[in-house]
Amino acid sequence: MYMHDLSIAVFSFSGHQHLLPYCLRSIYKNAPACREIILVWDDYIDWYPIDFDRLRRATKVDFRLVPQSSISEWPDSIIRWGWIKQQLAKLHCTEYSTTQNTWIVDGDVLITGDPELFVDHDPVLRYDADLVVPPCYKPFMQRYLGIDDFNANTYVGSTGLFDHDICRVLESLCRSRSGMNLVAAVDHMITSGSHADLPFSEFECYGHVARHSSRCKIKSHNWNYVESKQPDWSLPIQIAWAQEGDNLDIRYKNLMRHTHPETVDH
């Protein structure tokens, strides 16, 4: 029996497949027990072949593969903006995850500490107290969600815990405000041509809907990135990026040594 009704969804594509083993193993070591790990794969980008069975064997982490093409009928405009398609795929976690909560994780990060996803069994909504909401994300939320009351700080991060009920509320809010579902609304924004270079954020949309929900405990947390000169290893949700220029084996072992010294070689 699991303490929380939780799945973990990792998002990646062929260009980052060499980073995936480190991400998956770090999740296995540091994340809470979950019903399943889901690898949401961008099958529209086919730069390099990948053997998913080999990935499972190498990491000793089992996962269920979900191609992005199976999640929605993506308009051409969104397919061309691949990162927006990935953002929408995160908000559509109700389509491929059967649990109440899905922890969204970008596949190029390493989780090096306890993410503290729940407080007294309530899902935690985190925001970054060091950064404000970028102005470029506000027009979509204003026009298509009817949100004008913005949080002082951003909800954008490399991970996020999504409560499925809140995802459904977000979709319903978009339909009632714009007469379109979320995918169609983003397509409409893109094809209208009047938008910023970074016009949409899944974390901002989710956070600004969730902040008014009694289901989430609002918890301020400054992301304790390991890239800082003196990271505080006692804090939760340590995040590092599996940087391209790194010797990833050495970097991974050095990072895991702080949380799991007994298994650092695995």
List keywords for this structure.
3-stranded mixed beta sheet, 5-stranded mixed beta sheet, globular, disordered C terminus
Description:
The chain is α/β, with parallel strands linked by helices. It has a single domain, classed as Alpha-Beta Complex (Spore Coat Polysaccharide Biosynthesis Protein SpsA, Chain A), CATH 3.90.550. It is 32% helix and 17% strand. It has helices at residues 20-30, 52-59, 76-80, 82-91, 138-145, 164-178, 182-192, 202-210, 248-256; strands spanning 6-12, 36-41, 64-67, 101-106, 109-111, 118-119, 122-127, 159-163, 217-220, 239-241. A five-stranded mixed sheet has the order 3-2-1-4-8. It has a three-stranded mixed sheet with strand order 6-7-9, with no helix packed on it. α6 (164-178) packs across α8 (202-210). The two termini are 26 Å apart. Mean pLDDT is 86; it is low at 261-266.
Topology:
Blueprint: E1 6-12, H1 20-30, E2 36-41, H2 52-59, E3 64-67, H3 76-80, H4 82-91, E4 101-106, E5 109-111, E6 118-119, E7 122-127, H5 138-145, E8 159-163, H6 164-178, H7 182-192, H8 202-210, E9 217-220, E10 239-241, H9 248-256
Helix pairs in contact: 6-8
Which CATH class applies here?
A: Alpha Beta
User: How many beta-strand segments?
Assistant: 10
Specify the CATH architecture.
Alpha-Beta Complex
- Helix and strand content put the structural class at alpha/beta
The average pLDDT is 86
Order of helices and strands: EHEHEHHEEEEHEHHHEEH
Shape: globular
Strand order of the largest sheet: 3-2-1-4-8
Uncertain residue ranges: 261-266
Radius of gyration in whole Å, from Cα?
Answer: 18 Å
* Total number of helices: 9
**Oligomer, anyone?**
single chain
